[in-house]
Amino acid sequence: MRYPPAIQKLVEELIRLPGIGPRSAERIVFHLLKSPPDETVRLAGALTELRKKIHHCSSCFNVAQSDPCPICADVRRDQHTLCVVERPTDVVAVERAGNYRGRYHVLMGKIAPLDGVGPEALRIRELIGRVKRGGIGEVIIATGSDVEGEATALYVAKTLKELPVRVTRIAHGIPMGSSLDFSDEVTISKAFQGRTPV
Ligand SMILES: [Zn+2]
Q: Are 85 and 143 contacting, i.e. CB atoms less than 8 angstroms apart?
């Protein structure tokens, strides 16, 4: 038996989302049907605004509603230090830890040959460009400690080698095989303090 088309359509859209299977999708749809109509309107509005208002900062590639993003635009932040992370969620994790005061460079992924993601798919060229323009004293590589995160760190370190910049890697207080955004604030702070030159 199939649901009426409007339900079926939303179920099919929801199933495309990460972590949502057919059962969860059905549960969400029926929850929406029995909740007050304005709740659904707010959700639809938030989804539309998401794509309309969110862009990538042209400097660090983090998600933002302005360009440059608030972090790049903040003159009180240390302009000589760049922290290289995989995803926007990592920026939030490091910011939450609270003691990093430099800027970021978001690669928008990690090198994953098995998934067909090579270095050219990441914002590595743009990182080199930023360093070459000068004024950067240290690049802290804060990619995850899983195999792809390590491979990405190695690649980034290698490409920066010829440039006059100190390159460091955060310490492995981050649990092995884990990504930054799953780590707690204390672990992240310790990993930054214990960073080593590469
Ligand atoms: Zn930015």
A: yes
The average pLDDT across 128-155 equals 95
Task: Name the β-bridge partners of 106.
Answer: 85
Phi, psi for residue 22 in degrees, rounded to 5:
-55, -40
Respond yes or no on whether the N-terminal peptide bond of residue 68 is cis (omega within 30° of 0): yes
Helix (H, G, I), strand (E, B) or coil at 197: strand
> How many angstroms separate the alpha carbon of residue 106 from the centre of ligand 1?
9
Domain annotation for the chain: domains and CATH numbers: 5-53 (1.10.8.420), 76-197 (3.40.1360.10)
Q: Report the separation in Å between the CA atom of 173 and the middle of ligand 1, taken as the mean of its atom positions.
A: 26
pTM above 0.85, yes or no: no
Please report which residue ranges of the chain form alpha helices under DSSP H: 5-15, 22-34, 37-53, 70-73, 88-97, 124-132, 147-160, 185-193
pLDDT tens-digit profile of 45-103?
999 999 999 999 999 999 999 999 999 999 999 999 999 999 999 999 999 998 899 99
**Longest CA–CA separation in the chain, Å:** 66
Report the separation in Å between the CA atom of 59 and the middle of ligand 1, taken as the mean of its atom positions.
5
> Which residue's structure tokens are 């929406």?
32
